[in-house]
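# nightly structure sweep
# worker-07 picked up a monomer target from the shared queue
# config: single-sequence mode, recycle default, output format = structure tokens
# input follows
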Amino acid sequence: MLNQIILNTPRWVWVLLLALLWLGLSQTRARSASLQRITVLPLVMTGLSLYGCLASFDSGAALLVWLVAGMLAVTWVLPQELPEATRYDAAMRRFSLPGSWLPLALIMGLFLTKYFVGVVTALQPGLRGDPVFAFGFSVLYGAFSGVFVARAARLWRLASQQGSVAAPAIAQSA
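# output follows
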């Protein structure tokens, strides 16, 4: 059965997996990034998470659960300190970021959650309306989103504290 699931998975899913692996692995090394760049990943991952939740479940309550879980994750992660090697150069508007395996784990966690929910609901469509199933996976989707957003918000806060306001920097990229 596992072989059939893998063989029937559209090719674009595997291309997406490779792209996400590359993105996650690229963050395991120390790097430099602009404020705009550190904003894109959380926005994209939150969008994919929200889409996964809305597309997978027939309940409006799933969206509320997603939102509450995301807010709880933000509340938990936001007060945590940035890694000591994290720096922001206000003149260059760039961050120096230490490598971390956490982004890869979060990206793969979100991808695998979406893949698992997609496979399971394709095999058992009735689960789309099951409140326990929807609740559990909406919590996961929301938690992933909250962690992505909070990690970026900590960097926005660092930039703001060093004389660069995050909102105008984001607006300039448009």
